[in-house]
Design goal:
The chain is mainly alpha-helical. The chain has 11 helices and 2 strands; from the N terminus they run ααβαααααααααβ.
């Protein structure tokens, strides 16, 4: 794993260790949960614990997923360096910004940015390759984290992801590079455990309006 990924990994480990020692993020959720969108359904028993475990898993996979995406882009002859550098830079600023309060809350915006960038690149390359490059479905997980961050901050991070995506403009893949990417992707299909659906595993669901509501037909 490169220095960039080691830096990200160390930052994540510090945040998780801080949470396990002080449970600051978990305690903060008691105030946050009532404000979550009503479509997000959490387990009734100890919802803060479930949500904290979800956030830890959401953050912990970032170095591995980024590394896999970089390897796929390299196989396709595409430059992943701008993505890697921006995300690593965002994580590297955290200790200086919050040296004594480094925890899950201080790392969540960086984690969301990383996941959104990976989601967008996956979506952009899927039509080219005819299949998602990374076998993940992060939509629900990103929606939940978006609620935790708040709409204003989430929109800023989405904008940053869009700017980076514009810089990440894959040229038309020649047949050799395309085949190389697809063959490389097949390695991931053999290790599905590396691509968990965090929300589903933690019994977090997205539910629409109840269909049992009485419909007003008077008009």
């Amino acid at each position: 794993m490169s220095d960039h990924y080691e830096l990200i990994q160390q930052c994540i480990e510090r945040a998780v260790t801080a949470e396990r020692a002080r449970s600051r993020f978990r305690h903060s959720l008691h105030k946050t949960l009532p404000n979550l969108h009503r479509s997000i359904h959490l387990p009734e028993r100890d919802a803060p614990l479930h949500l904290t475990c979800f956030v830890i898993r959401y953050i912990q996979v970032i170095p591995v997923w980024l590394k896999r995406l970089e390897e796929l882009c390299d196989a396709g002859g595409m430059d992943f360096h701008p993505v890697q550098e921006l995300i690593a830079h965002s994580f590297s600023e955290i200790p200086e910004r919050q040296p004594e309060q480094h925890g899950l809350g201080s790392i969540l915006d960086e984690a969301y940015l990383a996941h959104r960038i990976m989601e967008e690149i996956n979506d952009v390359l899927q039509p080219v390759c005819g299949t998602p490059l990374l076998p993940m479905d992060p939509m629900l997980a990103n929606l939940v984290v978006r609620e935790l961050l708040g709409e204003s901050l989430a929109c800023q991070l989405d904008g940053l992801a869009d700017i980076l995506l514009q810089r990440f403009e894959p040229a038309e893949l020649d047949p050799e590079h395309l085949i190389s990417m697809i063959l490389y992707k097949q390695r991931f299909d053999d290790v599905p455990g590396q691509w968990p659906d965090f929300a589903k595993h933690m019994q977090i669901e997205l539910r629409g309006p109840s269909l049992n509501r009485q419909v007003d037909l008077s008009h």
